[in-house]
Amino acid sequence: MTVELKRQDFMADAVAGLAFELPDGGRLALTVAELRNLPPISSRKEPFAVVLQGPANPAYAQGIVPMLHPVHGRCDVFAVPIARDARMTQYELIFN
């Protein structure tokens, strides 16, 4: 079953336990660093972008990543790493 994630799915009360699933079955814990609306350029009613922040290591490269959402379960998303330093990695996800 495919889930269409919405902006509300990344608001504070909906994301406790948000994570990327690691290849070994472990979890890479994530927090929402930024959530913003995007201009409507497609058929999606409310396009948005979310920046997720996780630890510096391990880090995913750009591509489709299995995300574990506390409400919707496992969802494959396209994530782009946009910032990284010694303590964290940030990923941007665009829903348009």
Strands of the widest sheet, in order across it, are: 2-1-5-6-7-4-3
Structural class: mainly beta
Q: How much helical structure, as a percent, in the residues?
A: under 10%
Radius of gyration: 13 Å
**Can you write the helix and strand succession as a string?**
EEEEEEE
The averaged pLDDT comes out at: 91
Describe the largest sheet: 7 strands, antiparallel
**How would you sum up the global shape?**
globular
pLDDT under 50 segments (min length 5)?
none
Strand content is over 45%
Brief summary of the model shown:
The chain contains no helices and 7 strands. It is mainly beta and 96 residues long. A hairpin with a 5-residue loop joins strand 1 (19-21) and strand 2 (27-29).
Structural summary, described in words:
- It is a single chain.
- The chain is an all-beta fold and 96 residues long.
- It has strands at 19-21, 27-29, 31-37, 48-55, 63-69, 73-84, 88-95.
- It is globular.
